[in-house]
Write a structure and sequence with these properties.
Two copies of one chain form a homodimer. By secondary structure, chain A is α/β, with parallel strands linked by helices. The first copy, chain A, is built from 15 helices and 18 strands. In chain A, α1 crosses α3, α6 crosses α10 and α12 runs parallel beside α14.
């Protein structure tokens, strides 16, 4: 049975015997009518007696519904006058309206992106199944240990000791969501310990420079040559820490030479400083053996950061820090304050995945695949851009191509974007201008796409007048497309005048 | 076949035909010998020729092994002198050494903790299976959308609109790891917009006061009475935002009265201020209907924060923000900077879990269970502490018990801890002293434990001379046991003298 009423502009339909009580239905109908604007602000509602008669329900049903909506603030009532719709009109929900983000470019040469199509879905799912089958998993589902679930710290520490030559221990390991958060936690701890300035490599990751600065620390650039960081320059700087990529310098691909490693650790020991070791893609070496970590040589002076973003998938957001003993508790506390700890089930799934051999199997497969793609990229560059100087081919997930002197890097990037190809320049990663260069990630692209993309790239470089609008200069310093999109949105809104100074 | 040599103190065993090459074995043996201290700093190694002869291998094997260890920094070489062990002795790995955390208390009455033993493991696993079966899931495994995966934002927005009376939209939803991070993101954005001071409820969550202060904002306390926040007090304060728990005030359990809601939103509109709405346990109402959200009434002035920590499990670390349009991009940017976005697979699993009806089913089950436990808690208090004043029983996962005037809250907590029972006081959540009270969470404890725990509690309160050492006063302001443990560790280390001022 269905009953409809029409008091003024108010349409209410009640259905009997269909699960929801009449009161719930009435409440829902009124709430929706207010949300959708069918009942406008300030509109008077019928008295409960009148509406009840109209709907053929008991007056109590209407009184309870009104009370609930009064409690929710949709209605207001004053003694002696009618119940009215509140004066703040709630906006209309827009769920289901499509606002899909624009489609990405046809070819994206983002450096450091692994091929997520080989993500071991079945093995990962099996690992979670085994974790959830542990009888007392419920104890792991409460508030997380801010340092990370201990079984995961054990598994990760053992994995790193075996494959990366670290001297990791579970009790000095802190889990986080990836390099970005790891660096922020280290900076937080360093600042608490009185550090005011951190040295970085030049060229070095531009996003990381910005992250360090955002944490309230000053940044000093130290040049990189073919042996890695110029450690001799460090001694002239008054810095309490230095961020390095010794296994595979970002973006040049250089391996830090043994003497430099030794000198760097001696510097750290002499100055009681911290070396922040970014071991971002060390699992991928194609033409030589893996290089061990600094952490394995000087665990009390190295804050080591790694993640699964290159080995498995960035979307997992699992990373780890190996910290000197005196900084472990502070790091865990900083993690607690940042987000109360990372998702425990993900950590335990990774632990199971590692100890069951899943990660080793996946990496063997990935190494073969990426090596073939690296070869395809090098061959395509030799074929289409035979004069180009290519660096950093021995390892990692990207290589670097120096552009001819005088090339406008941003114009090349913009021209590529017009051909539905996203490439990345070294510009955002340089503190001092030292010539244009491209960073080309190859791990996530099929060989055919690599060949087609490099051919397109050659046509962009050949095009002397690409006729593209250069982007605002500030945005060219941002390498991350998501960050660039958000900053552009904020800038657009500010220019519309949506901004106002606030207390 | 096994071959062993003993040059000086160096023991190297090589096995032929067992998978690893001789070079890899030699490298591993040397590396381990250095890590374990069997080869000491500065020790000279045999020449490659001598060691090769000794081991019965070709010289090239030894040269390659030495080269690798030189590259890793374990060895140093100078022209014309012997290869030596580097002067920085790497510490010995301690993996596998047990340092299990101390066992928790027998009864833990932590407020706000759901029963994780009813976590829907099978349904959650099925949801992940369905997510991983989507053919193009690989596109979701790259770097996350910092705002959160769109399908998850859609599902969460629809869920909130249906159950919480919000007017959520996917494009204004930002996913995060829970309330703690959500609040930090909002504070970050507010500070960028010039806000310097935020009002909080008194009593109100102590951890949140600290979080706001840690974000560089000042905190003003506004008293709470039986109708919720004293909105009239707000107008005297120069604040740009206020944090409230309107559906179920923490810790008192009061529901904000309709007039106060209206007044609060009018204040926000008049001052262009932001109301931060903490909707932390609104799904659990036992004796009355759910109360709608402020966000549903004024989406442009409310920053709404919710999570799965109470509905499913804190370990999931999934939360969400519903933001006014003008703050969405900034919030997503703050999220990008904090951690590059939350784990995508978890978000998509939750979306699948919600849309398949799993969350509704779980909540129906949980509500029944928690209601029984609430009843058991109330009955036990009436039986064992008949004079106690109990508040906040109509909803949520905890209730509040006022202690007799003059009771030393910390002493009661310490006495309980000695009886292997962890209880929580209102002290850390009060800005002004207003009498001792306990917060007793009941959702995670079986009814028998609730009865036994309350009986124990009665004995603690009856014990006039508990004879316990009170904790340092600063730590009694910290309610989170994990945070308290870390702070105590840091303080202990500092007193040992491990601290030094750094640049």
């Amino acid at each position: 049975m269905k009953r409809t009423t029409f008091p003024g502009e108010l349409l209410v339909s009640l259905r009997r015997g269909e699960g929801q009580s009449l009161r719930e239905q009435l409440e829902g109908e009124l709430r929706t009518a207010i949300q959708r604007g069918r009942l406008t602000c300030g509109a008077a509602l019928p008295s409960s007696r009148a509406l009840a008669a109209d709907l053929g329900v008991s007056r109590g049903v209407v009184v309870l519904a009104y009370d609930q909506l009064l409690a929710e603030g949709y209605l207001v009532a004053s003694r002696g006058s009618a119940t009215r719709v509140a004066s703040r009109p709630p906006a209309r929900p827009a769920i289901g309206v499509t606002d899909e983000p624009a489609a990405g470019p046809r070819y994206d040469f983002r450096p450091g992106l692994p091929d997520t199509s080989i993500f071991p879905r079945r093995a990962w799912l099996s690992s979670l199944r085994r974790v959830l089958a542990v009888p007392d998993v419920e104890t792991a589902l409460g508030y997380p240990d801010p340092q990370g679930a201990r079984p995961a710290r054990l598994a990760i520490a053992a994995y790193l000791n075996r494959t990366r030559g670290t001297v990791a221990r579970a009790e000095r390991t802190v889990l986080c969501t990836g390099f970005a958060q790891g660096l922020r936690l280290v900076c937080d701890v360093l600042r608490q310990r009185g550090v005011t300035r951190v040295a970085v490599e030049d060229p070095g990751h531009g996003g990381q420079r910005a992250d360090i600065a955002a944490m309230g620390l000053r940044v000093s650039s130290v040049p990189v040559d073919d042996s890695g960081l110029r450690v001799d320059r460090l001694t002239r700087l008054n810095v309490g820490a230095v961020l390095v990529t010794p296994a595979h310098q970002f973006p040049t691909g250089v391996v830090m030479a043994p003497r430099r490693r030794q000198a760097l650790l001696e510097w750290a020991s002499r100055h009681d400083a911290i070396v922040i070791e970014d071991d971002y893609d060390a699992e991928f070496r194609f033409d030589r053996e893996p290089v061990g970590t600094l952490q394995g040589l000087a665990e009390d002076h190295v804050a080591y950061i790694g993640s699964t973003s290159k080995t498995l998938a960035p979307a997992l957001r699992i990373g780890w820090l190996l910290m000197p003993r005196r900084l472990v508790d502070r790091t865990a506390l900083a993690k607690l304050h940042a987000d109360h700890g990372s998702p425990t089930l993900d950590q335990l799934t990774l632990a199971e995945f590692i100890t069951s051999g899943g990660l080793d199997r996946h990496l063997r497969k990935a190494r073969l695949l990426y090596r073939r793609r690296r070869d395809a990229m090098v061959a395509a560059l030799q074929s289409h851009l035979p004069a180009s100087k290519v660096r950093g081919v021995a390892a990692g997930l990207h290589l670097m191509v120096a552009l001819p002197a005088g090339t406008d890097e941003d114009a090349v990037l913009a021209a590529a974007e017009q051909r539905s190809m996203r490439i990345y320049g070294v510009g955002p990663h340089r503190a001092r201008d030292a010539g244009a260069a491209l960073l080309l990630g190859y791990a996530s692209l099929p060989e055919a796409d690599i060949r087609a993309g490099v051919a397109l790239l050659a046509s962009c470089l050949a095009d002397k007048a690409p006729g593209t609008k250069p982007r605002p200069i500030a945005l060219t310093r941002i390498w991350d497309p998501a960050e660039r999109r958000l900053l552009a949105g904020i800038a657009a809104e500010a220019s519309i005048g949506g901004e106002r100074q606030r207390r």
